[in-house]
Amino acid sequence: MKRVTIKDLAKILSLSTSTISRALSDHPDISEATKNRVRIAADEFNYTTNVHARFFRNQNSRLIALVLPELNMFFTPNLIKGINKTIVSSNYSLITFISNDSYKREKEIIKQCMSWAVEGVLISLSKETFDLSHLEALTKANIKCVLLDKVLDNEQFPSVTIDSIEASYQAVSYLIKKGHRNILGIFGNSNFNISQERIKGYEKAMRENNIPILKENIVSVDKSKNLDFILPPILNHNKNITAIFTMSDELLAKSLYHINSLRLSIPKDISIISISDGDYPYLTHPQISHIKDSGSKMGKSACKFLLNSITKPSLSQDSGLIVSTKLVELESV
Amino acid sequence: MKRVTIKDLAKILSLSTSTISRALSDHPDISEATKNRVRIAADEFNYTTNVHARFFRNQNSRLIALVLPELNMFFTPNLIKGINKTIVSSNYSLITFISNDSYKREKEIIKQCMSWAVEGVLISLSKETFDLSHLEALTKANIKCVLLDKVLDNEQFPSVTIDSIEASYQAVSYLIKKGHRNILGIFGNSNFNISQERIKGYEKAMRENNIPILKENIVSVDKSKNLDFILPPILNHNKNITAIFTMSDELLAKSLYHINSLRLSIPKDISIISISDGDYPYLTHPQISHIKDSGSKMGKSACKFLLNSITKPSLSQDSGLIVSTKLVELESV
DNA sequence: GAAAACTCCGCAAACGTTTGCGGGAAAGAT
DNA sequence: ATCTTTCCCGCAAACGTTTGCGGAGTTTTC
Questions:
Q1: Confidence band, pLDDT 50/70/90 cuts, at residue B316
Q2: Same domain, B70 and B217
Q3: Is A287 left (phi over 0), alpha (psi -120 to 50) or beta?
Q4: Could you read off the pLDDT of A103-149 as tens digits, one per residue?
Q5: What is the pLDDT of residues A301-316, one digit of tens each?
Q6: Do residue A237 and residue A280 come from a single domain?
Q7: Among A199-203, B169-173, B222-226, whose mean pLDDT is lowest?
C-alpha cells in the first residue's frame, strides 16, 4: 500500500490540497468545521506529513547530525541522552554517524550530512583528524557546526568542552592537598588535544606545589588495554606511588582492575581519582572520587548552542563554551 | 550561500540537468569526456546530491529508524555499533529515537518514522508497551519493522532476541553443576517479557536438578537502585546463599557493589554469574563468568534481517531469529 | 440598496532529482 | 548518395508540500 498524501485526502474530502494543508497547520483562513473534517480524515487514514516533500518546499530539514568517533560505554550514552533531550524538545530529529576514528570516514560523513541537508552538525573529532578543512564545505553550504568533546583549537568553529587543564588540575591538586606527592598520571594517546591538556593540568598542579615532575610518572596509552603491560610493573616496583590520577573512566576501570588484582586496598594502600562522567565511580567499591565531567550536560549545552546559532545566526559568534566540572568526593582518596 | 544543485552545474557547464544527473551516476549514455567535466565541476563546487529531492523522485529514503527505550552503558553502545556497521555497509543512514520507556512517546516516534518515510524500523519496546497496535500503521505504509531485545510475543512482526530461557537456564545449571543449590536470582521488572523468561530459565534449571524453588530467592526489581535496600539484608541474613545469578550487567554491577561492601570474597564466600554483553565482566576483579549476550551481534543480526526483508519482501516471512549465547568461564564461580 | 468588508477556499507555481522518450549528428553499411 | 546504426544529449513530467494571490459568496455598513 502506498502512503496517504495530502492529495489523497483532498480527493476523499473533495477539497483542494491547499485547504488540506492549511487545515492541518491550523491556518485561520479555514473554518473550524472544515478543519475538523480534515483532522478526522487524516487520523482515520493515518496521514503523516512527508518531511522530505516539506523540506523540498521549505528548505528546512529539521535534522541535526551527530558525528562520533566511537561509542564507548562510559561517556557516549549520557552524551547522546543530553543531545537527544534537547533535540526532541526543539522538534528536531537526530541522524547519527560513527567515524570509527577514521579521518577518511569522517570526510565521507560530512558529505552525507550535506546530502541530508542537515541544519546543524555536532561533531567529536576522530583521532586522525588534525585539520578542519573538510568541514569548510559545511560553512559554504551554510550548515552550522559545533565541535564537542574531542576538538581542535581553531578560529572557524565554536567548541564545547570541559576545561581539561582545570579539571585535571583540580584532581591532582586535591590529591596533593590530601598529602600525596608521588602521583601517577595515566592519560590517553598524547596526540590528542584532550590528553595534552590534561597532562598540562597535572603538571601545573605539581609545579604549583613545588613537586618535581617525574617523566616516569606520566603514562600515555593509546588503548586502555595497553595498561595490562604497563601498570602492574609500575605498581610492583615503584612502591613510592601513593596515588593515581586517570583522565577517563576507561583508564580508571582498567587501573582499578590491576589495583584489585594486586590486592592493593583503596584508599589505604593507594588512592585514586579520575575525570569521569559520573556513573561508573558509583559502581565500584569503594566508590571513586572524581571530577565530574557530565556527558549529558555537555551534550545538552552543545546542542542548545548549535540550535541557537541556527535560529539566530547573527547573535552567536562566540568561540564556544566551557562546560563546568566539579569535584565529587567519595571514598577513594 | 545556497547549496549547489544539479541545475547550477548544468548552467555552469552549459549542459542539461539530465546529462549532469546521468554523468554523476555513471550512465553509459554519457561520454567519458563529459563525465569527467561534470565530476570535476561537482568536486570543485562540492556538490552533493540532495537526498530529499532524490527520495521525492524515487520514493526510497535509504533511512532506517532505531527506536530504543533508553540508553544504558552496558548494552546499548554495542547494540548501536552492530546496527551501525550493517547500516553503513549497506549504504543506509540511521535516525535514532529514544522513547524513555514511554508508550505515548513511542507512538509519537512511530508517526515520525512515517513522516521520515524510513524504509525500516528497528525497535526495542518501552516498559509500558503491552500491545503492538501502534505499529500497524507501519505495516499499512509498507514499512518493515523488526523487534529486538525488548520484544512481545506476536504474530505480526519478526523478533530478534536471545533465547532468554535458555540463557538463564545455562547460567543457573552451571552454578548447580559447580555444587551450588541455594541460588539467589536477581531479575528486572517482572512485567517484562524478558524478565519472565529469564525467571522461567532459572526455575527450569532448579526443577531439573530437583532443587526446591524458594520464592524468597527470586528477586525482581524495577530499577537496579532498588537493590540498595533489598540485597544487603538478604546477604546478611540468608547465609545459606552460596551463589547469585543476575539477569543483566546493570544488576550485576549493583550486586557486585554490595558484595564488595560486605567484604564478601568472590568466589570464596559467594559465587556470581550473569547474563552480560561481555564487556563489563572483564573490568571487575575477579572477572565475572557470564552468559555472553552480545549486543553487537544482536544489532547486526536484526539489521541484516530487516534489510533483507526490505530488499526481498517475498522471501523473509520468518518470525524472526534467535541470537545464540555462550558461556564464558572466568573467575567468579 | 449598493458598496464595502469579511469568510472561506481554490489555482498554480516552485523546490531538485530522475528517467522514458525522442532527436540530431556522426559513422558505418549498401 | 541514401539508409541504418550508434553515440550523446535535451525535453518534459512527476514526486508532495506550501503559500501568495485572487475570487466567489455572505454579511455588515451607511
A1: low
A2: no
A3: beta
A4: 999 999 999 999 999 999 999 999 999 999 999 999 999 999 999 99
A5: 999 999 999 988 776 5
A6: yes
A7: B222-226
A14 beta carbon < 7 A from strand C? yes
Residues B185 and B286 in one domain: yes
Same domain as A16, residue A28: yes
Count interface pairs A-B at CB distance under 8 A.
131
The contacts of residue B243 (CB under 8 Å, 6+ apart) are B175, B178, B180, B182, B183, B184, B270, B271, B272, B273, B333
Interface of B with A in 20-39 (CB under 8 A): none
**Residue B54 forms part of a structural domain:** no
Q: Work out how many domains chain A is built from and give that number.
A: 3
Q: Which pLDDT tens digit goes with each residue over B172-204?
A: 999 999 999 999 999 998 888 899 999 999 999
Find the helix packing angle between B17-24 and B6-13, rounded to 10°.
110
Instruction: List beta partners, residue B186.
Output: B219, B246
Query: What residues pair up with B219 in beta bridges, in sequence order?
Result: B186
Task: Note whether B169 and B211 are same-domain residues.
Answer: yes
Q: Which residues of A touch B76 (CB under 8 A)?
A: 77
Q: Is residue B56 part of a domain?
A: no
Chain A residues whose CB is inside 8 A of the B283 CB are 253-254, 256-257
Chain-centroid distance, C-alpha B89: 18
User: B116 and B232 share a domain?
Assistant: no
Query: Which region holds residue A62: left if phi is over 0, alpha if psi is between -120 and 50, else beta?
Result: left
Does A77 fall in a domain? yes
Could you tell me if A267 and A191 lie in one domain?
yes
Domain residues for the domain of B310 are: 61-162+295-325
B264 contacts chain A (CB < 8 A): no
Note whether A56 contacts B: Cβ–Cβ < 8 A.
yes
pLDDT category, B315, cuts 50, 70, 90? low
Instruction: Kindly report which amino acid residue has its CA closest to the C1' atom of nucleotide D14.
Output: B57
Burial class (CB in 10 A: 0-12, 13-18, 19+), A40: exposed
CATH number of residue B314's parent domain = 3.40.50.2300
DSSP, collapsed to helix, strand or coil, labels residue A271 as strand
User: What is the Cβ-side half-sphere exposure of residue B137, based on CA atoms within 13 angstroms?
Assistant: 21
Distance A25 CA to C2 C1' (A): 38
In-domain check, residue A1: no
Asked whether the beta carbons of B331 and B289 are under 8 A apart, the reply is yes
List Cβ neighbours of B51 (8 Å cut-off, separation of 6 or more).
A115, A116, A117, B61, B62
**Distance of alpha carbon B16 from alpha carbon A199, whole angstroms:** 58
Q: Which nucleotides of D are covered by protein (CB under 7 A)?
A: 7-22
Say whether B50 and A112 touch across the interface (CB within 8 A). no
**B279 lies within 8 A of chain A by CB:** yes
Residue B113 and residue B87 share a domain: yes
A57 Cβ partners below 8 Å, 6+ apart?
Answer: none
Measured between CA atoms, the residue of chain B closest to residue A249 is: B283
Q: Decide if A262 touches B, using CB distance below 8 A.
A: no
Give mean pLDDT, residues B127-137.
94
